Amino acid sequence: MISVSVIYPNESGKKFDIDYYCNKHIPMVQQKLGSACKRVAVEQGLAGATPGAPAAFIAICHLYFDSPEAYQTAFSPHAEAIMGDIPNYTDIQPMIQISEVKI
Amino acid sequence: MISVSVIYPNESGKKFDIDYYCNKHIPMVQQKLGSACKRVAVEQGLAGATPGAPAAFIAICHLYFDSPEAYQTAFSPHAEAIMGDIPNYTDIQPMIQISEVKI
User: CA of B53, closest CA in chain A: separation in Å?
Assistant: First the structure.
């Protein structure tokens, strides 16, 4: 199992509409990716490790697939629609990586 | 539900022993935290979003709890043992944050 992790740095002066992200963007992504996407996890950063410290990341999303190839096959035909929706909820440039699920 | 996310930047010249992390460190952490820790997820960064790009993070771990207070209560008595084990698998300073699980 692999995870496509989409990680949004918590940058001051930038916007991130968590309601749009959870209620519009992610459901649209799931609909486009279909059954290739096995599971989605989304979390919203609340705080850093020390009292009063901000979270380093405003949102972290993991999309789970059987393999990098399964992700590419599912994502490529819908890349434009998915990427094109990003300005509707944020002006932050996400960090994206492919990871192997270990636990 | 909240997640305590422990995120290790992929820094060149640094070590990260994923086998020790998955087979020794995480089981020890789970044993110390007990039933307050509802679930653990660990992934290992493989690649960035563009061909040939490295993953920004060598490992991402999420530990799930009912609340920030449940985490603090479970973690505090074992902080020294848990933090003291870090040099056994890495010399990377992790980024730690508390997040709200949205999806």
Answer: 9
